[in-house]
Amino acid sequence: MHTQFPPEVRQHLEHKQTVVFSPEDRRLIGTAGYEAPSEDIVTDAVLAIYLGKNVLLKGPTGAGKTKLAEHISALFGLPMHAVNCSTDLDAEALLGFKTLQHNALGQSEIVFIPGPILLAMTKGHLLYIDEINMAKPETLPLINGVLDHRRSITNPFTGEVIRAHPDFRVIAAINEGYVGTVPMNEALKNRFVTVEVPYLQGEGLHMLLQKNSILHDEKLLRTFVQLSADLLALIEMGQLPDEAGSIRALLDACDLAAYIPPRRAVQRAIADKLEDERERAAVMNIAETLL
């Protein structure tokens, strides 16, 4: 089990699997099964988490960053609380909010409902911040103290100082260069160890499609692996956007191809998502050549 890790890390992971959580918290533990393009990706991310570092997963959309975070959650046996960043993200979405409730005596009282960050901090769980560079620049400095050596925050809604449980860990994910994203400032970036997550290719991709798609035609699965390679070649030349290489989209195409003609499956799952007509035509040209 976990043979690629040093003995002390293996022992730690095995011990964490024995920790008992409430049924509610256990449902938050991710599912293992991330297929890595390189073993170093999982090894380095796990080692960083073991050492108490914040990990930034950097890669194109659909490369499996969220799946890797869930995989790490499963390896450590840590429930995972997710924050999905957007331009609308505010302090309440991150930290929690006050609301009116009735107590056991039927009296109304104002109570604070903790958000994902405070829950993860106080329970010693894993915090996953998805698309961290989609948040407004003025929002994330709220949690700078959570991400550095202080591992604490003053709750702006209650004035209470919250200090993180020793098991608290943080993973964030970033898609660079997409519409609506902003460059991470240096203060925030310096709080993370960065792990590149590229698209899976070759035999690893074939195994993933075999395992996760309802399509069982081996010849067709191999053709979809080649389709992915050809799409990535055009992406590298700047002729297609990153989303054309999404593994999620490729899986969708495989599933559809179990029931409809493969070229139409590629059109529905990959080509029609693209805005530019020339990009859609480029995808379909590859599909027509292979399929």
TrEMBL record:
SUPFAM superfamilies per the UniProt record, alphabetical: P-loop containing nucleoside triphosphate hydrolases
AAA+ ATPase domain span: 51-203
Source taxon at top rank: Bacteria
GO molecular function: ATP binding; ATP hydrolysis activity
Name this polypeptide is given: MoxR family ATPase
Organism: Paenibacillus whitsoniae
